Amino acid sequence: MALDELKSALPDYAKDLRLNLGSVIGNSGLPAQQLWGTVLACAIASRSARVLRELEPEAKANLSAEAYTAAKSAAAIMAMNNVFYRTRHLLSDPEYGTLRAGLRMNVIGNPGVEKVDFELWSLAVSAVNGCGQCLDSHEQVLRTAGVDRETIQEAFKIAAVIQAVGTTLDAEAVLA
Length: 176
Prior knowledge:
The longest helix has 27 residues, at about 150-175. With about 180 residues, this protein is mainly α. It has a single domain, classed as AhpD-like (Up-down Bundle), CATH 1.20.1290.10. It is globular, with a radius of gyration of 16 Å. It has helices at about 1-10, 15-25, 30-45, 50-60, 65-90, 105-110, 115-130, 130-145, 150-175. Its EC number is 1.11.1.28.
């Protein structure tokens, strides 16, 4: 199992990550599609080839073709949106917020899966990419749709752990 490979690759100083990785994936209360879509989208967003290589096959095996594509789409569109909206938010000039974005985001309106799942994946990727405006936006959509805080937190816990695992393994590869 790829998850075991990742856990065993983590150095002893990162044993908490090893335990957390097993917990957030192995003991998640999320339905399989939400879990594995979050895992895949966050593995892509982590920018760690090792993490993506290890987690993608299991995600693909646990997702329909539509959900697999939608999770990749969430990672792709949020890679763009997180940079754009984070930058607009961080600039001192509020006038940028009044300008039309002019970026195509059609997949958000028609992701090919339940809107809640796509929003959850988008929120998790936004956590990895650190975009507060996108986090607020996706959290609001999820809460309006009746998703509880525990489910939302589960998604960003997965994001946090996958990002940390990728950072640690990539650093170890350079330091070795």
